[in-house]
Amino acid sequence: MADLLTDEEIEGSLPEQWEHDDDEIVRIYEFDGYLDGVGFAAGVGGIAQDAFHHPEITIRYQEVEIRLTSHEAGGITEMDISLAERFDDVV
């Protein structure tokens, strides 16, 4: 099982535009249209599946919200930070 990060470690390594929300990290990505967001969500889903680390993904008309946490560890781990960085590369 991965080690939980402290609040200080989270804040120090959190990618730009991501927020720390209790035991999750969260980002809302904005898009010009619905299908752009759906395409992004599909790409993120593939990355998550390859890593076997599954975020909560909420698709809205012009935005996609991603929430990451390590359920088995009970909070935020380095895997969450790493995936957040990889998701940012998809945009």
From TrEMBL:
As its record notes, the protein acts as a catalyst of: (4aS,6R)-4a-hydroxy-L-erythro-5,6,7,8-tetrahydrobiopterin = (6R)-L-erythro-6,7-dihydrobiopterin + H2O
E.C. no = 4.2.1.96
**Segments passing through the bilayer:** none
Gene3D superfamilies this protein is in? Transcriptional coactivator/pterin dehydratase (3.30.1360.20)
Molecular function per GO: 4-alpha-hydroxytetrahydrobiopterin dehydratase activity
Instruction: Spell out the InterPro entries in the cross-references.
Output: PCD_sf, Pterin_deHydtase
Give the similarity note: Belongs to the pterin-4-alpha-carbinolamine dehydratase family.
- Recorded protein name is 4a-hydroxytetrahydrobiopterin dehydratase
Q: Which organism is it from?
A: Halocatena marina
